[in-house]
Specification:
Elements lengths: L24 E4 L5 E4 L8 H20 L15 H4 L1 H20 L4 H8 L1 H13 L5 H16 L6 H24 L6 H9 L3 H13 L1 H31 L2 H40 L1
Antiparallel strand pairs: 1-2
Helix pairs in contact: 3-4, 3-5, 4-6, 5-6, 6-7, 7-10, 8-9, 9-10, 9-11, 10-11
Length: about 290
C-alpha cells in the first residue's frame, strides 16, 4: 500500500515523503501519482512559491505594459509635423497673414498694415531675449522685413521705384540669412529641421545631437543657409537691374517669375546639403 505523508516505517527510518532538512515532501496519491506537499517549517511549496512570484511580478508587468517605449511619446501626445512647424507659423505665417488681412480685407494703408503686423515679431523678439536670453532669429527677420517695407512704402509715384522696392525686401532676407551663416547660427535650419525630423522625438533628438557633436552636420547646415541666401540675393540683384533696364510692363510679370525661379533653384541646389542631412539623421536614429 503506498505510504502517506508523515508515516514512519517499522524500522524507524523516515518515510520516503519526509526529509530531515524540511524540504518539500513527496507522497503518493491514491492513483500512484506523486504529490508535493509543504515542508514542516511552513515554507511554501514549490508550486505556491511560483504562484506568489508570478503574482508579485504581475503589477510590474502591467506597469511596463502601460508605459510607452523609451524615446517615444504616447500615441495621443506624440507631436507631429504641425507641432514642429508651429514656430514658423507664429513667427512668419501670422505676421504675413495679418498684413494681407489688414491691407486687402479692411483697406488699411500699406505702412500701417506693416506696422501693425510687426507687433507680434517685435514682442516675440523681446520676449525671447528677456526670458530665454536668446534671440529669436525668425521673429527678428520678419521685423526687419516689415521695417524695410515701411521705409520703402514712401517710394511712390515712380513705377520703376515701386518695382525695385520688392528687391529691397528680398535683399533684407538674403543678407539676414547670410549674416546668420557668418554668426554660425544658420537661419534656414529653423525651416529645414521640421521637415527633416517630421516632428518625431527620436529624429529631433538625433538632429540636436548631430548639430552639437558633428562638424560635418554643422557644415551642411551652414551650406544649406548659404545656398538660400545667395539665391535670394541673386534674385534681388536681377529684379533691381530689370526694374530700370526692362519695360515696366515686362517686369510686372517677370518679377514674379524671378522670385519663383530663385526659390526653385534654392530648393534644387539646397538638396545637395539637405540630402546628406537626412541620411545622417536616419543613421543616427538607427544606431540609437
Amino acid at each position: 500500500m503506498p505510504g502517506r505523508r508523515g508515516q514512519v516505517p517499522a524500522d524507524g527510518a523516515p518515510a520516503d515523503g519526509a526529509l530531515a532538512d524540511g524540504a518539500p515532501t513527496v507522497s503518493a496519491a491514491a492513483d500512484g501519482a506523486p504529490t508535493v506537499s509543504a515542508p514542516a517549517d511552513g515554507a511554501p511549496a514549490d508550486g505556491a512559491a511560483a504562484d506568489r512570484e508570478a503574482a508579485d511580478q504581475a503589477p510590474a508587468g502591467r506597469a511596463l505594459a502601460g508605459r510607452a517605449p523609451a524615446g517615444r511619446a504616447p500615441a495621443g501626445r506624440r507631436p507631429g509635423l504641425a507641432g514642429a512647424l508651429r514656430p514658423l507659423l507664429i513667427d512668419i505665417g501670422i505676421p504675413v497673414g495679418t498684413y494681407y488681412l489688414l491691407r486687402d480685407a479692411f483697406g488699411v494703408s500699406l505702412w500701417l498694415s506693416l506696422a501693425l503686423s510687426s507687433v507680434g515679431p517685435a514682442v516675440r523678439s523681446i520676449f525671447g531675449l528677456v526670458a530665454d536670453r536668446k534671440l529669436n532669429m525668425l521673429a527678428v527677420l520678419m521685423l526687419a522685413v516689415n521695417l524695410a517695407g515701411i521705409g520703402i512704402s514712401f517710394l511712390t509715384g515712380d513705377p520703376r521705384a515701386m518695382i525695385a522696392k520688392d528687391s529691397i525686401v528680398s535683399s533684407v532676407i538674403a543678407f539676414a540669412i547670410l549674416g546668420s551663416v557668418a554668426l554660425r547660427r544658420p537661419l534656414m535650419s529653423a525651416g529645414l529641421k521640421p521637415f527633416m525630423t517630421r516632428g518625431q522625438p527620436p529624429r529631433t533628438a538625433a538632429w540636436d545631437r548631430l548639430s552639437v557633436a558633428s562638424p560635418r552636420f554643422r557644415r551642411l547646415e551652414l551650406a544649406f543657409s548659404t545656398i538660400w541666401g545667395l539665391a535670394l540675393l541673386a534674385e534681388c540683384a536681377a529684379r533691381l537691374v530689370g526694374a530700370y533696364a526692362l519695360p515696366v510692363t515686362t517686369m510686372v510679370w517677370l518679377g514674379t517669375v524671378m522670385t519663383l525661379g530663385s526659390i526653385g533653384v534654392a530648393i534644387v541646389v539646397g538638396g545637395a546639403a539637405a540630402g546628406p542631412i537626412q541620411e545622417m539623421i536616419d543613421a543616427d536614429v538607427a544606431a540609437s
